[in-house]
Amino acid sequence: MAYVDLNPLRAKISETPEASEFTSVKKRVVAAKHQKQPKLLYPFVCNPRENMPDGLPFELSDYLELVDITGRIIREDKRGSIDASLLPILQRLNISSENWLRIATEFGARTGTVVGAEQSIVHYCDSNKLNRKPRSSHNRLLA
C-alpha cells in the first residue's frame, strides 16, 4: 500500500504524499478533515484486539508517518523523494503530535462522536443533518 502511495513522489510527479492525486493518502487526509472514512478504502481500526472490527490493524497517523519516513529515503533508481527540509507529515497537516496522541489515546473516554477543527465539525454536522454540535475539549487541539 505504501509503495503505491509513494509512486507519484518517486516519479517526481508530486512533492508530498498528501498532495499526490489518486492516492489513498490524499483520499484519507481529505476524508479525515471532514470526519469521514473514504468509501472505497479499507478503514484503519487501530491496534489488534479481541472482537476487532474489519480493517487495517493500526492507526491512520502511524501509516501517514510510515509513508512520510519511507518517502524521505533517497533511492538511486528513483527520481524523487520527500525533501529532507520539509516538516513531518502531521506537522504539514497542522496537527501536533502531542495533540494527536491525546486525542488517539483518550478518544473513547473524552470525546463525542466526532473530533476535529471547529469548521470541520460544523461541516460534518451540516452534512449529516445533526442539530446539535458534539462537544469535546479535544476539538480545540486540532484547531
Q: Please identify the structural class as seen in this structure.
A: mainly alpha
State the order of secondary-structure elements, H for helix, E for strand: HHHHHH
DSSP, total strands: 0
Number of domains: 2
Cα distance spanning the termini: 30 Å
Average pLDDT reading: 79
Helix segment count?
6
Low-confidence stretches: none
How much of the polypeptide forms β-strand, as a percent range? under 5%
Q: Outline the biggest β-sheet.
A: none
The backbone outline, from C-alpha atoms, is: globular
Helix content: 40-55%
Tell me the Rg in angstroms. Answer: 16 Å
Describe the structure.
This protein is mainly α and 143 residues long. It folds into 2 domains: 1-91, no CATH class; 95-143, no CATH class. Helix content is 42%, strand content 0%. α1 crosses α3 (60-72). The model has no long low-confidence stretch (mean pLDDT 79).
Structure keywords:
143 residues; mainly alpha; 6 helices; 42% helix; Transposase
Brief sketch in words of this structure:
This protein has 143 residues and is mostly helical.
Topology:
Blueprint: H1 2-10, H2 24-33, H3 60-72, H4 89-92, H5 97-110, H6 118-127
Helix pairs in contact: 1-3
